[in-house]
Specification:
The chain is an all-beta fold and about 80 residues long. The chain has no helices and ten strands. The termini are close together. Helix content is about 0%, strand content about 55%. It has one domain (about 1-80): Elongation Factor Tu (Ef-tu), domain 3, CATH 2.40.30. It has strands at about 1-10, 15-20, 25, 30-35, 40-45, 50, 55, 55-60, 65, 75-80. It has an eight-stranded antiparallel β-sheet with strand order 5-4-10-1-2-9-6-7, with no helix packed on it. A two-stranded antiparallel ribbon has the order 3-8.
Length: about 80
């Protein structure tokens, strides 16, 4: 099961980081699924930053930077994978 938690607002290609504006809570250790026009992949959140400072969790309205394994694109939707 998946729940939408945010949307990619920017992708920093040189460092492989996606800026994600959150609509719901996300924390380190969660698994995310990034889906868009040409994106469709899943990964575990290993670390998150807000304004270059590491954080363990973030909530609605926060813009977090997450190191991603694959290319993310602006407007890609980010889902949190919920383990049943």
């Amino acid at each position: 099961m998946e729940k939408q938690v945010g949307r990619v607002t920017h992708y920093f290609g040189k460092v492989g980081v996606a800026a994600i504006e959150l609509e719901d809570e996300l924390k380190v250790g969660d698994t995310i699924h990034v889906k868009g026009h040409t994106s469709d992949w899943t990964q575990k959140v290993e670390s998150m930053q807000i304004e270059h400072r590491p954080v363990e969790r973030a909530g609605p309205g926060d813009v977090v930077g997450i190191k991603v394994l694959e290319h993310a694109r602006e407007h890609d939707v980010v889902y949190k994978v919920i383990e049943e």
